[in-house]
Amino acid sequence: MRRPILFALVLLLSQLVSAQKLYPLRVLDDSIAFQITTQNGKLELRTPTATEVFNSKKDFPTLIALRLEGSDLVLEYQPQKTADILSYDITLRLQLADGQTINPLAYELSNVEQAGGTSRLVWLDAVEYLPDFSAGYSLHVRRSLMGAVNCEGRRPTFSLKKQLPHYAAGSVGLVLVGLGQVYRDQRDTYYSDYQKNWADGLPVPDDKNNKQKTAVEKNRNASICTWTGLAILGVDALLFVWRGQKIKKKQRVYDKFCGTSTSFNLRPVLMPGAGLGLGISCSW
Questions:
Q1: pLDDT digits 0-9 by tens, 221-270
Q2: Given a cut of 80, is residue 14 above it in pLDDT?
Q3: Could you write out the three-class secondary structure of 15-60?
Q4: CA separation for the pair 164, 7 (Å, rounded)
Q5: Inter-CA distances, 157 with 22, 24, 243, 248, 249, Å
Q6: Could you state, in order of their start, the residue ranges of all structural domains in the chain?
Q7: What's the predicted TM-score (pTM) here?
Q8: What backbone torsions phi and psi does residue 71 show, to the nearest 5 degrees?
Q9: What is the chain's mean pLDDT, rounded?
Q10: CA-CA distance, 276 to 268, in Å (whole number)?
C-alpha cells in the first residue's frame, strides 16, 4: 500500500515544484546620451534632465536618474507594484562613439534597494570602458516586464494533463478511506464473534486465534487508513484549488499583455429540409 501512496504524492509534488520559466511580456527601451567631464578633480556625468530622456509607462519601473559615483555608473529607478507572477528585468548596454557596444558582465552589475522604496542598478567600474572623456556615449536601458506566460504560446489552461496528478492522489485517498471501512467491518465481525464466544463460555483461544486481539488490530488499521486517506484528500483538494487560482491569474495576465484573438470561419452545412447553407464557427 505504501508504494501507490508514495507514487501519487511524488507525482503531484513534481508537478507543483517544477521550475517556472519567465517570458518577456512587454519591453520598453531607452537610449540615454551622456558625456564624462571633470569638475574639481572629480568625474561627473552630463546628461539631459530625467524628464527629457526617460520614458514612463504603466506597469514598468520608473527610471529616475543616471549618475556617476566614482568610476561606477548608477541608474536609479522606482519599482512598481505588480501581481505575484510578474517581475522586472533591467538590462544595460553601453554604446561608444564609434558604434561599438559593450554589455556588462554578470559580476559587474549590482542591484541595491534603498530607503524610500527606490532601487539602484550599479555598473561597477563602467568608466574603464570609456577611453575618451571628450567623446559622447549612449546608455541603452531595456526594461522587460516578465511573467510566467508565453505570449507566443497558447492561453494557459488547467488541462487534463495538469489535473491527472490530483486525480491520482484523490484516487489513492478514496481507496484508503474505503479500505478503512473494510477494516472497520472486519473489526466489528471479529469483536462480535469474541463476545459470542465469551457469552458461550468457550475457553480463551491462543494469540493466533484470539478474535479480541484481531479486532484491536483491525481497528488500528481502520484508523490509519481512514485518517491517511482523508488527509490525502484534504491536501489534494487544497492544492487543486490553489493551482486553479494560479492558472486563473496567468490567464488574466495573458489576456492583458498577450491579448485574445477571435477568428470566424464559414463552412458549408447541410441543413435538413433547407438544402446547403453556411455555418459560422468561431474560436478564441
A1: 888 999 999 999 999 999 999 888 888 888 888 888 887 544 344 444 44
A2: no
A3: HHCCCCCCEEEEEEEEEEEEEEEEECCEEEEECCCHHHHCCCCCCC
A4: 13
A5: 17, 19, 11, 8, 11
A6: 23-147, 155-253
A7: 0.58
A8: -105, 10
A9: 78
A10: 7
Q: Return d(Cα 172, Cα 231) in angstroms, integer.
A: 11
The CA radius of gyration of the chain, in Å to the nearest whole number, is: 34
pLDDT tens, residue by residue, 97-126: 888 999 999 899 998 888 778 899 999 999
Q: Name residues whose C-beta falls within 8 Å of residue 226's C-beta, 6 or more positions apart in sequence.
A: 176, 177, 180, 181, 184
Structural contact between residues 75 and 141, judged by C-beta atoms closer than 8 angstroms:
yes
pLDDT for the residue 200:
64
Which amino acid would we find at residue 4?
P
Residue corresponding to grid cell 520559466: 21
Q: How far is CA 263 from the centre of its chain?
A: 30
Residues in CB range of 57: below 8 A, 6 or more apart: 28
Element (H, E) at 144: strand 136-147
How many other C-beta atoms are found inside a 10 Å radius of the C-beta of residue 231?
12
Q: What is the pLDDT of residue 161?
A: 85
> Can you tell me which residue has the cell 465481525?
189
Reported as a pLDDT band with limits 50, 70 and 90, residue 141 is very high
